[in-house]
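>> received
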Amino acid sequence: MRWQTMSQRRRTAASVHRRIQESLMDDAHHAFTVTLPELRKYKTAGSIPGPLFLLFWILLGFTEFGTTGIPHWLGFTVTGIVLALLTGFSIYGSRKRKQLAPVINRRFAEEFTAHTGYEYPQDVDILSVKRTIAVRNLDGSVFLWGIRRAKDAVNVFPVT
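>> returned
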């Protein structure tokens, strides 16, 4: 009896998977890609301080606890320079990201509306969306669009 239940579950899961695949194939002509060169700049601006932060802690560790034969004043000077660069790039990166976020959202909203015909929700930030965007039809029903981000593009596809 138990084996029969598992077999039924497998058949049901397989049929659901097959229906999903068929519907995705039917809706494949609705999928599109929005190219956003600003997205690469946005990601780069956020990743610059990371290596400097790691370098700062490595230099600080060697200066404090290492026996490199380098005078402490020179080690602290180099560490201070790296700290100043880290602070500068962090401030620059956060300002650049704040500057690029509205541009990216506006361009994506324009492309989304042009390709789908749906009005893009104003309160949705494409940079914080993980998987889907819910869009209301004129009749009040909701349609889901899947999102996949690449380096400088966003792939948009219908979700069933």
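>> The chain has one domain: 19-159.
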